[in-house]
Amino acid sequence: MSTCEWPSNDPLMLEYHDTEWGTPVHDDLKWFEFIVLDAFQAGLSWRTVLHKRENFRSAFDHFDPVIVAGYDENKIQELMNNAGIIRNQVKIRSAVINAAAFLEIQREFGSFDAYIWGFTDGKVEQHQLTSLKGMPAKTELSDRISKDLIKRGFKFVGSTIVYAFLQAAGMVNDHLTQCFRYAELGG
């Protein structure tokens, strides 16, 4: 069975690739999780973040944006002292800011899912990559979404970070064409 190269032989990365990465998301809590985790990934590897994901889930109240938006200075300091997550103060504070902005989008559009899928009219962008060398770091789609999120008050949502969560949440199919998941996901 052929697969993408990037998970290498890391069992957690393989499981993530084989069952989650690129599967279209329609759950707002999952969207918020990807937004937070991909912001924490900035400057680091996804492997580092994935291996801390359960700690992040616990520390960030299972990525409930209502709870995260209400974090006070004591909670931020508690997170800064949590060795189980990536302790970057700017990224932690941006997660709180992003939670409030996420809630505003939910109020305006009914759900974050309705908002984000509106950029593609509900369709997955099917790419036809045969090598990791051809995988973009960002696209016109991620540029547009990034600009709109920033306009709405989000932090740590540059085009490269946005593209990473679009890949993870299945708005783009960037599995290699020879990977078994490519066809499973409509490629």
Describe this entry's structure for a reader.
The mean pLDDT is 96. The protein has a two-stranded parallel ribbon. The protein contains eleven helices and two strands. It has one domain (11-184): Endonuclease III, domain 1. The chain is mainly α and 187 residues long. The protein is 55% helix and 2% strand.
CATH topology: Endonuclease III, domain 1
The neighbouring-strand order within the major sheet is 1-2
What's the order of the H and E elements? HHHHHHHHEHHEH
Poorly predicted segments: none
Radius of gyration: 16 Å
Q: What general outline do the C-alpha atoms trace?
A: globular
CATH superfamily label:
Hypothetical protein, domain 2
Beta strand %: under 5%
Set down the secondary structure blueprint:
Blueprint: H1 11-19, H2 28-41, H3 46-50, H4 53-59, H5 65-69, H6 73-80, H7 89-109, H8 112-117, E1 125-126, H9 140-151, H10 159-168, E2 172-173, H11 180-184
Parallel strand pairs: 1-2
Helix pairs in contact: 2-7, 2-10, 9-10
